[in-house]
Amino acid sequence: MSRQKGQLYYEKFMSWASTMSDEDFVRIIYPHTGKLNKADIKKLSGVSAEALKNNKKVKDALKDLEGDLRERGVLPPLSESGKANQSKPKEYKPGADRERMNDIHKSHLERDNHDLRVQVEELEKQVETLKSQLAANGELVEAIGELEVFTLCPSKH
């Protein structure tokens, strides 16, 4: 990232942050971590994900903003583990992406399975309804057959 682009992202971030109210920040808190949701920041500020991760000025500004919001009670305070993890680099876990994708795939399969089970139940109810209608109509067809009405009609061959 060039210095000019880096400065532009920093200015975009600072401009965006200055236009946000406390209520706006509350709407973009990521509940699991108590931090601001970076995906929402990216969308709302126009700052790239790369800049949020790698641009030192933007990272420091975000850290300062979150600290200020914590002091004002907008963001929840950092837990002890959060404070400890703040200084540590993220631990790389091989296969984490695969696990996450498998979890997403599994949840989609479970949802589809549930939808299909509901659909099967509805179809089974329809089959029962049609069987009872067929039984009722079967008696009618037998009665008409006994009258021999259709055998008396001339055929159109």
Give the topology, please.
Layout: H1 3-19, H2 22-27, E1 29-30, E2 35-36, H3 38-45, H4 49-54, H5 56-71, H6 80-87, H7 96-147, H8 149-152
Antiparallel strand pairs: 1-2
Describe this structure in words.
There is one protein chain. The protein is mostly helical and 157 residues long. It has eight helices and two strands, in the order H-H-E-E-H-H-H-H-H-H. It has helices spanning 3-19, 22-27, 38-45, 49-54, 56-71, 80-87, 96-147, 149-152, and strands at residues 29-30, 35-36. A two-stranded antiparallel ribbon has the order 1-2. The longest helix is centred in the C-terminal third of the chain and has 52 residues, at 96-147. The chain is elongated. It starts with a helix and ends in a 5-residue tail after the last helix. The mean pLDDT is 84.
Keywords:
157 residues, 2 domains, two-stranded antiparallel sheet, 75% helix, 3% strand, elongated
Task: Put the structure in a nutshell.
This protein has 157 residues and is mostly helical. The protein has helices spanning 3-19, 22-27, 38-45, 49-54, 56-71, 80-87, 96-147, 149-152; strands at 29-30, 35-36.
Summed up, the domain count is: 2
Query: Shape, please?
Result: elongated
Report the structural category. mainly alpha
- How far apart, in Å, are the first and last alpha carbons? 85 Å
Main sheet: strand order: 1-2
Proportion of beta-strand residues:
under 5%
Helix and strand sequence: HHEEHHHHHH
> What would the average pLDDT be, to the nearest integer?
84
Low-confidence stretches: none
The count of helical stretches stands at 8
